[in-house]
Amino acid sequence: MHKPSDRLNRLAESATLAMARMSRELKASGKDVIALSLGEPDFNTPEFIKKAGKDAINNNFTHYTPVAGLDDLRDSISNKFFRDNKLKYSKDQIVVSTGAKQSLANICLSLLNPGDEVLLPCPFWVSYSEIIKLAEGVPVKIPSSVDNNFKVSPEQIKNSITKNTRMFMFSSPCNPSGSVYTKNELEQIAEIFKKHPKIYIVSDEIYEHINFTNEHYSIGRIENIKDRVITVNGVSKGFAMTGWRVGFIGAPLWIAKACNKIQGQITSATCAIAQKATEEAMRSDPKKTTLKMKEKFLSRRDMLLKELNNIKGIKCNIPEGAFYIFPDISYYFGKKYGNTIIKDANDLCMYLLNNCYVALVSGEPFGNPECVRISYAASDDKLLEASKRIKNQLAQLI
Ligand code: PMP
Ligand code: GLU
After folding, report:
1. What is the pLDDT of residues 336-385, one digit of tens each?
2. How far is the CA of 125 from the centre of ligand 2 (A)?
3. Is 356 within 8 Å of 175 (Cβ atoms)?
4. Which atom of ligand 2 sits closest to the CA of residue 361?
5. Which CATH number is 6-44+288-394 given?
6. What span, in angstroms and rounded, lies between the C-alpha atoms of 72 and 69?
7. 147 close to 109: Cβ distance less than 8 angstroms
8. What is the per-residue pLDDT across 94-144, written as a single tens digit (0 to 9) for each?
9. C-alpha of residue 272 to centroid of ligand 1, in Å
10. CATH architecture of 47-284
11. How far is the CA of 339 from the centre of ligand 1 (A)?
């Protein structure tokens, strides 16, 4: 008799958070779990940012703020966009939200009508497709594979456009593949959208500071499309501030106003204390603040790639950013462990979790069901131990 709404029934649970929950439960039951499932830096928030948060409490920044964020914070973000990305967004074009996840939800709820199609180059971050569905849009997946470095071609994008296409949404550096779209590739993509003035482009740049190519280019710089680009960013990844819950957008004024209106009815502004800490992060030199973390991620990437490349049947690209490796593990599909057949990446993840206590996330909710995602935001020791366990456990499949 009692049941949730159809809207809820259409949604999948967040696969990243579901795997994190399962590994926590297994750990609580006494198992020695290595959780490489959640995309969360294992570093602490830098001291000077934490101090700004403490000062904010002492100075009574404990009240509601304007829905889109404190003026000083939006000024600092406006400066950041120009300093780091050569993007010109005035303070009024910026909306600060409770994480970039809410920024994405605001955008979809503000711009999509029922049936509007959103192009998602695969692999895409798990929440994109579900947020789109929540807004009654239709996710349209554009396939890729490890053989083309998990990038889609301009031709593929062009062929996916229909009269219902309303949005193109992507992350670069990409969660989960780590691929970085170059300036040249983004220019080619922009050429397509110049001919389709009704399509919005959502550029999720939350991994901007974890980029090993040292070249981050924002598609919002490109003339003739920039009045349709929404740039999403935040502090969770680059500044190790996941729990503070701050993300933001730079957008055309009318879109910023629309997002402000939606947010004003759902959550109001994000936490005032977190906003003051974020202002400090924005005013700092990102190279200094984030460099040590980036260097550590790079050395872990190299170490983990070496280990994975020694495991039979695993195919990896070389991720150029973020902190994930997204290997193709389809070699193991159809293999058996006792009476259990590994049919797909979901089965493989459950097999590894239940038998050697390593938590990964299946590639299926990211749009690439032949892959698994491994987060290397963990210590070297844990990564080495996890690789050993994965290798031994996979060797038992026949
Ligand atoms: N975009 C991408 C690509 C992500 O990986 C994440 C991870 N959480 C987010 C957005 C949302 O981040 P947050 O809500 O913590 O700002
Ligand atoms: N973005 C991270 C991930 O992909 C955090 C978890 C989430 O919000 O989904 O694991």
Report:
1. 998 889 999 999 999 999 999 999 999 999 999 999 999 999 999 999 99
2. 8
3. no
4. 10
5. 3.90.1150.10
6. 8
7. no
8. 999 999 999 999 999 999 999 999 999 999 999 999 999 999 999 999 999
9. 20
10. 3-Layer(aba) Sandwich (3.40)
11. 38
